[in-house]
Amino acid sequence: MIRVLLVDDQPLIRSGFRALLDLEDDIEVVAEAADGEECLVLVKEQLPDVALIDIQMPVMDGIQATRRIAADPALADVHVVMLTNYGMDEYVFDALRAGAAGFLVKDIVPEDFLHAVRVAARGDALLAPSITRKLIQRYVTQPLNATGAALKGLTSRENEAVALAARGLSNDEIADHMVISPTTAKTHINRAMTKLRARDRAQLVVLAYESGIVTPRSR
């Protein structure tokens, strides 16, 4: 059973998402919160698999709440998905930096919304290739070389796999490009995540651009 926490300051939005989730046999909404502070209390009490958190809220916004969740080792298994009214608003990249596994636009169709919750529960990033490219083009302008020391620990194959993931390729596509099996591609990505201390694939993409593994121009 996938346990979900809904966090949004608009009751109508919460009730709409809850109505969809309550129809699914494998998903349970364990709690609802109206702001970031309430979210932090409930996420510690309920330990949901997925926390769907609105970016803009009173008291404490979703990015602050996400940052607090990501920093707490006891909440390492909580996968945060940000909710936004706009597909490419100015907060999206900040949310990924804070530790979110991805984001959803609130006008998403029901089938895609339910699929996204299941994807997040598995620990996969909710970053379609097209969205990844738009994020990079809009928000990442210069590499920060923030993880230079950690990068030296990557093998050449791990480095190559990370670069491909940063361009939005799936494990299967990385495997085709590198002429390896999908299992090996996944192993390269997982080992790179461990070495770079990336919480999930979304943060791995952020780190790849910030550290200079790839740059927008290299696309």
Automatic annotation (TrEMBL):
Stored Gene3D superfamilies: 3.40.50.2300
Keyword Phosphoprotein: yes
PROSITE patterns: HTH_LUXR_2, RESPONSE_REGULATORY
Transcription recorded as keyword: yes
InterPro entries: CheY-like_superfamily, NreC/VraR/RcsB-like_REC, Sig_transdc_resp-reg_receiver, Tscrpt_reg_LuxR_C, WalR-like
Pfam families registered for this protein in UniProt: GerE, Response_reg
Span of domain HTH luxR-type: 147-212
CDD domains named in the record: LuxR_C_like, REC_NarL-like
Transmembrane segments: none
The protein, known as: DNA-binding response regulator
